[in-house]
Design goal:
This protein is of the alpha+beta class. Helix content is 40%, strand content 16%. It has a single domain, classed as 2-Layer Sandwich (Ribosomal Protein S5, domain 2). It has a four-stranded mixed β-sheet, sandwiched between helices.
């Protein structure tokens, strides 16, 4: 098992980002994650870290390293989906552990949108006995 963040695990093309932004994201205190079914058989990661949220480049790079590290170490457990991670608040070294747990929880609970939609339909339909 390799922990390298390979090229096949990166989302680079703008069309892939735009497709993900069309779907509703999952949000917590630290992150918003948009999830799309991948055409690839491996999970892929894209990140959006804006200057508006984190002004200093050192802090932005820390956030990117944290997100990539979590993704690399848990990529074997993740379903083959495209994950677009957007940061919602400034991340400092003091809050890395809390943010790490929050991101991991969002990523591991991820399901394709078809399964989410199907699950919500099943909950709304009651089957008489």
């Amino acid at each position: 098992m390799s922990f390298a963040f390979r090229d096949c695990n990166r989302i680079k093309e703008s069309k892939d980002f735009l497709q993900a932004f069309r779907h509703k994201g999952f949000t917590n205190k630290w992150f918003t994650i948009n999830i799309v079914d991948s055409k690839h058989n491996v999970p892929r990661l894209g990140m959006v870290i804006s200057k508006k949220v984190i002004a200093k480049s050192v802090s932005r790079n820390l956030a990117k390293r944290l997100i990539r590290e979590i993704f690399r170490h848990h990529s074997e457990e993740l379903p083959p989906l495209d994950f677009i991670v957007r940061i919602r608040r400034k991340l400092t070294i003091h809050y890395c552990l809390e943010a790490r747990e929050a991101l991991l929880e969002l990523m591991l609970s991820a399901k394709p949108h078809d399964q989410i939609h199907f699950a919500s339909i099943n909950k709304s339909i009651s089957i008489p006995n």
